[in-house]
Amino acid sequence: MKKMPIFAGLTCALALSGCSTLDNMMSDGFSQSELPAAIQVPAGNSVAMIGTVENGNVAWVCAQQDNGRYDWKFAGPSANLMDASGEQLGSYYGPPATWESVDGSKVTGKQLATAPAGEGNIPMQLVKANPAMGQGAMSGVTYIQRINLNGGKAPAGGCTAMAEGRRYISGYTADYVFWKAM
């Protein structure tokens, strides 16, 4: 099932201008106006690239929490980042959350904010990137946004003392927008 963009107005505006892919937004101007304020990238940054995840996975593990109850704990992502033509740009994995380009450069980062992305979906996210490791596409990345989500959530139940240590893999799709300082 193909995901629908959260910023539908932007997609319509792009379609009217002859631009139909996220990659083309870089040259036509990327507007964050329809994204929640909490995950908007500060002024002084511009879109460097956009990677789409079509068949990503989020791993969850059943574990006892500090309060003594059992619940699903985030164990890490695994996904390929693709461009609009279907070519692989890199991968996303963790922990720690790492975005790695096919050229070997990579970044990790610190989550600054999240915003709800709808029932059954992991949240939208804003990450402040750490300095890149290696030279290449990830060099100079300042922020990473996760938008246009579908799936990825932990199950609503099933995590008990009897299930402790059990892993659950949840499929998801998303777009990751990589920003660099202007």
Automatic annotation (TrEMBL):
InterPro entries: DUF3455. Pfam families: DUF3455. Keywords: Plasmid, Signal. The keyword Signal applies. Coiled coil: none annotated. Residues 1-22 form the signal peptide. PROSITE patterns: PROKAR_LIPOPROTEIN (PS51257). This is DUF3455 domain-containing protein. It comes from Marinobacter adhaerens (strain DSM 23420 / HP15).
